[in-house]
Each structure stands twice: as structure tokens, then as C-alpha cells.
Design goal:
The chain is α/β, with parallel strands linked by helices. It folds into two domains: about 160 residues, no CATH class; about 120 residues, Restriction Endonuclease. Helix content is about 55%, strand content about 10%. The chain has 15 helices and seven strands. The chain has a seven-stranded mixed sheet with strand order 1-2-3-4-5-6-7, sandwiched between helices. The longest helix has 23 residues.
Length: about 300
């Protein structure tokens, strides 16, 4: 089996771990868990456990351990009132989104927006998930509250792994785009968001696309552009850098004052590639490696300053 050199292995794993970490926040897992913890479960109707898909044995085990039932078993009212609660109970049951689609209960809409299911859908989801959760609770001789967080974590990890497999070829681009999105939200700069376009309060527009991967506009004039070339394999380095230079050159021709940023992997920075960048300072005004942006806070702030965010 071929082995990666240490630097290549580090970058590959760093991007994967970064994606997993970003998904925790993107999916709002902690926010949803906190919201469910605050639900006054005693005010909900639990009188017909069978209708809710909850076994008496599982219910008794949870209650006798002093665990709030609402943190373990899905209730239709909670699914309808707490945004993204579907993801909490689905992951607790360790069921995938694809599996839910296969039984005619797709959940993506309720896990990526603040939309919540209607009563009939919420009841059907609760029954399906509670049947599985009840079986899992019954299978343990003793229930430990901490185990529920592990169950959810296992399901979240499996889902993130699927995202990683889908995005692996563009992991570097996604990492940088998520980094910029998070910064815009953190600074309260977002005025509106529609698809890959974000309107800022200062009148600028940010577009996440390709060639360039990220662009900042004021009116019709592009003020800043980022190209991310994240290939790990040293082969094809010059081709990747060359493609970026062509894209950024067009932008500088249209606006000679535009800030142009190239982000590459450290393994891409061969002697020849470094020389090409030095020669083309009029095309690429600044460049970073993906490693330093992911691991060095001062480098991230330098990038944010260049973008005016």
C-alpha cells in the first residue's frame, strides 16, 4: 500500500478534521441539543407511549435513571416547535438521512432550515425513531446519560464522513469558503444571503463560485478575488498555479487595483511555482498556503484584513 509523506498526510487529515468540525456548527448540533434540554417535557402528553412508538420498558429505564424523557424520545410537539430537532432524534437513533428518505420521510429540509414538519409527518417520524431508540435503550443493562451524546456523535461522524467523500476533491476550497462565511457571520456583516451570493451591510456583494472561488464586488466592479488550488499531489502543480494565474490576470486587467489572493497547499510550492508567483506579483498580490490558514490565526486575520472583513 502506498504511503503518504508526513506533510501530505497532515494536510489531508487536517482538511478532513476541519470539515468535521465545521459540520458540527453548520448543523447546529449544540444549539439543538441545548434547545431540547430546555423543553419542559412534563408539559407534553406522554400518556399513550405505544402511539408514540416508545416501549414501556425503555421508558421506565430512562425515568428511573432520572433522565428527562424529552432528551431521549422524540415527541411530535417538539419536532414541530424546535427547529432542527429532527436531526437530534435521528442521530440519537443512529439513522441516516438516506434511510429516512427510503421510508418516505425525508428530513433534509427540516435539518438545514428552520422549517418544521406538520403534525402527521412529526407523528410518523417520532414513531419510527422511537421504535429504534427504545430498542437501543432496552439493549443496555444500565443506561448512562452520557451514552446518548456518543450515539449522536457516531451518527454525526458517519454523516460528516459522507460529506467528506463528496467534497474530498474540493476540500481546500470548501474550507476557505466556510472560513470566510464564518467570519462574515461572526462580524455581523451579512445583510442577506441567497444561494452562493451574500449581500453585506456596507453594500458589497460576496459570490462563492469558481474562477474565482470567492469574489467581492462593489456594484459591478470586482474588488477582491480568491483562487484556491488545493491539490495535494505534487504532480500537476504548475498546471494548477498556471490556471489560477490566468483567472486572476483577467481580474487585474479589469480592475488594476483589485486584491488577488492565491491559496495553495505547501506541497504545491515547488521552487518553480514559487518563482512563477514572484514573477507574477502584478497578477497575484498575495498568497497563502492552506495549512497556515487552517492552523495560524494571524494568517487568517491577514487574509480577513485584505478582504476588509
Amino acid at each position: 500500500m502506498a504511503q503518504h509523506d508526513p506533510q501530505t498526510w497532515f494536510l489531508d487529515q487536517l482538511m478532513k478534521s476541519t470539515l468535521f468540525h465545521q459540520k458540527v456548527h453548520e448543523w447546529g448540533l449544540l444549539t439543538v441539543a441545548d434547545a431540547i434540554e430546555k423543553v419542559k417535557g412534563e408539559q407534553l402528553t406522554w400518556s399513550n407511549l405505544t402511539e408514540l412508538g416508545i416501549s414501556q420498558k425503555a421508558w421506565d429505564k430512562v425515568v428511573h435513571r432520572g433522565i428527562k424523557p424529552v432528551t431521549v424520545f422524540a415527541h411530535p410537539q417538539v419536532l414541530m416547535e424546535v427547529p432542527r430537532a429532527t436531526s437530534y432524534y435521528r442521530m440519537l437513533a443512529m439513522v441516516s438521512q438516506k434511510s429516512m428518505r427510503n421510508i418516505g420521510l425525508p428530513v433534509e429540509r427540516y435539518e438545514t432550515t428552520d422549517d418544521t414538519p406538520d403534525l402527521a409527518t412529526a407523528e410518523a417520524m417520532a414513531r419510527r425513531l422511537n421504535h429504534i431508540i427504545s430498542s437501543l435503550v432496552e439493549a443496555d443493562e444500565e443506561i448512562d446519560k452520557r451514552e446518548f451524546a456518543i450515539w449522536r456523535g457516531m451518527a454525526a461522524g458517519a454523516q460528516a464522513q459522507g460529506s467528506w467523500q463528496n467534497l474530498k476533491g474540493t476540500a481546500a476550497e470548501e474550507s476557505v469558503k466556510n472560513m470566510v462565511r464564518a467570519r462574515l457571520k461572526e462580524r455581523g456583516l451579512l445583510a442577506g444571503e441567497k444561494g452562493e451570493r451574500i449581500d453585506l451591510h456596507d453594500g458589497r456583494i460576496v459570490v462563492f463560485g469558481s474562477e474565482p472561488d470567492i469574489s467581492f464586488y462593489r456594484g459591478e466592479r470586482m474588488q477582491a478575488a480568491i483562487e484556491v488550488k488545493g491539490g495535494i499531489d505534487p504532480a500537476g502543480v504548475l498546471e494548477r498555479v498556471g490556471a489560477a494565474l490566468k483567472s486572476l490576470a483577467r481580474i487585474r486587467e479589469e480592475n488594476p487595483t483589485a486584491v488577488t489572493v492565491l491559496i495553495v497547499t505547501s506541497t504545491s510550492m515547488t521552487e518553480t511555482a514559487s518563482r512563477d508567483l514572484a514573477i507574477n506579483r502584478t497578477v497575484v498580490t498575495h498568497w497563502f498556503t492552506i495549512e497556515e490558514l487552517l492552523t495560524n490565526e494571524s494568517s487568517r486575520y491577514n487574509l480577513f484584513d485584505l478582504l476588509g472583513i
